[in-house]
Structures are given as structure tokens and as C-alpha cells.
């Protein structure tokens, strides 16, 4: 039995998130069906993490096991032909038999895209925001995140998480002519965390919340303190990093 | 009465083209409804030209008349809020009372985008092409277009056109890492012309047609000689130029 890592990208608009759910189409389920079809046996995949309904991935990884995959270029061609147009497999590579897409991931990065101007080609891919936003102030607040290691205030209340500790490596807003992009990298993310952080940082950018209040929210460790979540369509899982030793 | 030019962009996926049709949603109709709603009187618009079902526009122009529009920034905000997310008004400006979006346009440019790699975010925005294409040969053929001035071979058979003369200024394929983009500029285009040209140039690129055969098709002036049309989703009206004297 060999283990393979799939590098996957998807537009999340038409899916109820990554994770398989009853009575709702998920990316994981669509992927498993396509793999099972072309490999002619039941295939299960384990993703690096979940994404919510409507959230996209520029780079997601998932592992699965099979005796022998054959030529990877041939496999990629066949699986992409079977998959719908909004899911693409970018690459496949063999990994160590005990490599794990979720547990071995060391850093995960998300980006959140705010659209400052109406663009007919970006529907479902940005949060169209009409507020005047103070970007330097939002970056001051984003910097405060790096000083803390418990983010219960930005976690969904219903969660399977046993603790709320995350090591945030970087968190920064990038100003572009027609977009404002939030980049955040951490060792792990809690459910709904990026969208809750973005929603709260936008309150800071609108002048509705001071830096002291933002810091107080982090310290409070209660979700109810933070701002409402930014909508899912602006969120992209953008990069997942692994240690090189997992690759054979 | 004042005349205004609207600069419009739209994703054509959900529309039956620009032109108003019975029993089918068009961009023109959607635009007229939005304008009539916010300006509180029946507004009709005249576009620079038609685009077919599923074809997009990065820059289309249309004129309409009204006594007084008021502040353009306020107008843009209101009309974009009423329009659906796949149509955007980029700008509005007053023009001479006899300026005409269709008859005054001097050059029109289209681009046609071929996708060389599956990209989940490009659905409906490229023609996903699996052929090996000889791009230099396709550019040789594209160059031949500049030597002729009658393109009946690339016109739809059912047409209201009284003649088939077009002055093609430039026609060129651009090779990008994951895309092949055809840029073409002419004083006018016949119905279905760009898609028929692209479909035939792809035959050249696949080695199914020689340069001599391609030239013979242009000379034949019969649509049946050319290759089948490339699908609409890769086509974008990209630029329309006007002489400066029409602007007040």
C-alpha cells in the first residue's frame, strides 16, 4: 500500500464546505467519488483541514492510499476530466506511508479578499465592502494578534476543539488598487477564526472599535465579545506547508 | 436633453447576450430596468455592438438620454447597487447630443482566452483546450487576416449585415504560462466572426489545416469553408475606442 498527497484547488461557491455532510454536497465527497470512479475501488481522502460552505482553496492537500497509482500525469488528466470544473487536482506525489495531511501540516495560510470596487467577474470571490477603512489602524490591530496564543474569542461556540491555542506567525493587510487582502499564517486555525478576525478588524478599520478594545476582546476569550464574521466568499485557504521528510 | 455614455463590464454567463430578446434575459434589458428604476422614467440604451450568449465584456459602451443626471459618483453608486453582481457600470460621462455608441466607435477589440490548465476559478471564462497547439503557426495564419478586407467566410449565415468588409488592424496570439490569448482589433466585426476565426486558427495550430488552406478559406467568402466556432465563454469584448470630439 502506498500513500499519496493530492494538491487540490477549488471554488467553494457550490459546496457545503470541504467535509462530508449528510444531504449536502461537499468537496471531499465529490473528490472521493471521482477517485473511486477512476481507480475502480472505494477511496477515502483525509484533508489538511476543513473549509466552510462557500470558502475557496488555492492550495489544499489530502492524502489517500492505494496499491499503485501508475503514471501521475495520466492520473491527473483522468481525475481532472471526471471532476467538475470548480475542483482541480494540481499535483499528486507519493509520501511516506505514515505521512498525514492533517497532522503533519506545520503552517497554514489563509487570505481574505475585500473588493473595493464592483467587478462583474469576482462574484462569489470577494467581500464587497462599502466602508471607508483605515488600513494602517487595521494593521496595528492585526499586529496585536501576534502577542497572544489563545483565540477562543474568535472560535465558533460549537466546536470539537479541546483547546484554543494557536501560534499566529503573521497577520497583515495588503492594500491594492481595487482590493484589500488580509494574509494570515498560523500552525492551526479554529473553526470560523479567520472570518471572525476579519469581521472584527473591519470594525477597527471603520473606527467603531479602538486598539485597546480589540486587545480586550482577545483577552476576554469569549466569542460573544468579537465582531460578526466576515462572509465566507472572500476567504481562501492559500497555502499549507509540510516538513520535507514526509516526501519519499 | 443630455446624452451620456456608460462604460459597462459584464460576465455574460447568465445572459442571452447583450441585445434585448423576447423571453430571454439580456444585458441591455437588465441595464435598462436598473436605469429606469433609479432615474424614475423609461430609459433606453444603445450599445456599441452586440455580444452573443455567454460572451463577456471588459469594456462595452452604451448611450442614453436624460434631462439631467446629477452627480456621477452618486449615480454610479446607486445604479451599481441595483444591478446584479455580474454587471458593473465603471464610468459615466456626458457626450455631445449626437454622439452615438455604435456609429461613432472607431476601433473595437476582442480577446479570446484559451485555458491550457484546469483552473477551478475560471469556469465560464475560458475555453479549456486539450490540443497541442503550434502558436507560431497560428500567428502566421493570423497575420494573413490583415491582408484581406472581406470576411464573409467568418460571418454567420443568418445576418442583417449588408456587406462583409472589415478593416482588421491587428490579430495576434499571446502565449502565457497557463493561457493562450488571441487579441484582435478591427473597425467592425461580423456576427460570430471572432469565434469562427479562433475555431479555424485552432485547426491550423493542431496541424489540421495549412496556411494555404487558411488563406483559401478567407478568399472563398463562404462560411461553410471555415472551421467550427470556438465556444462563447472564452470571448471578451475588451476595448472600444471613440474620437475625442464626441466628449463635451
UniProtKB/TrEMBL annotation, chains A, B:
CDD domains: PseudoU_synth_EcTruA. The keyword Metal-binding does not apply. Pfam families: PseudoU_synth_1. Keywords: Isomerase, Lyase, tRNA processing. One of its GO terms (molecular function) is RNA binding. Its EC number is 5.4.99.12. InterPro entries: PsdUridine_synth_cat_dom_sf (IPR020103), PsdUridine_synth_TruA (IPR001406), PsdUridine_synth_TruA_a/b_dom (IPR020097), PsdUridine_synth_TruA_C (IPR020095), TruA/RsuA/RluB/E/F_N (IPR020094). Substrate binds at residue 110. GO terms for biological process: tRNA pseudouridine synthesis. It catalyses: uridine(38/39/40) in tRNA = pseudouridine(38/39/40) in tRNA. Homodimer. Belongs to the tRNA pseudouridine synthase TruA family. NCBIfam families: hisT_truA. This is tRNA pseudouridine synthase A. It comes from Lunatimonas lonarensis.
Amino acid at each position: 500500500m502506498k500513500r499519496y498527497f493530492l494538491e487540490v484547488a477549488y471554488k467553494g461557491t457550490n459546496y457545503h464546505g470541504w467535509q462530508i455532510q449528510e444531504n449536502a454536497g461537499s468537496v471531499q465527497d465529490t473528490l472521493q467519488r471521482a477517485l473511486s470512479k477512476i481507480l475502480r475501488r472505494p477511496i477515502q481522502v483525509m484533508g489538511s483541514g476543513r473549509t466552510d460552505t462557500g470558502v475557496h482553496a488555492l492550495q489544499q492537500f489530502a492524502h489517500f492510499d492505494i496499491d499503485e497509482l501508475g503514471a501521475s500525469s495520466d492520473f491527473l488528466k483522468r481525475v481532472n476530466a471526471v471532476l467538475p470544473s470548480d475542483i482541480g487536482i494540481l499535483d499528486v506525489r507519493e509520501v511516506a506511508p505514515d505521512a498525514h495531511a492533517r497532522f503533519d501540516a506545520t503552517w497554514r495560510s489563509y487570505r481574505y479578499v475585500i473588493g473595493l470596487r464592483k467587478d462583474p467577474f469576482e462574484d462569489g470571490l470577494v467581500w464587497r465592502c462599502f466602508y471607508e477603512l483605515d488600513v494602517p489602524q487595521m494593521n496595528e490591530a492585526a499586529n496585536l494578534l501576534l502577542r497572544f496564543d489563545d483565540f477562543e474569542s474568535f472560535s465558533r461556540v460549537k466546536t470539537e476543539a479541546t483547546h484554543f491555542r494557536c501560534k499566529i506567525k503573521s497577520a497583515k493587510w495588503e492594500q491594492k488598487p481595487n482590493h484589500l487582502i488580509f494574509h494570515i499564517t498560523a500552525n492551526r486555525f479554529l473553526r470560523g477564526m479567520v472570518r471572525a478576525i476579519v469581521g472584527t478588524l473591519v470594525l477597527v478599520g471603520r473606527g467603531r472599535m479602538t486598539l485597546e478594545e480589540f486587545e480586550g476582546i482577545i483577552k476576554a476569550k469569549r466569542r460573544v465579545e468579537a465582531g460578526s464574521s466576515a462572509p465566507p466568499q472572500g476567504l481562501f485557504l492559500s497555502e499549507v506547508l509540510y516538513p520535507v521528510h514526509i516526501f519519499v
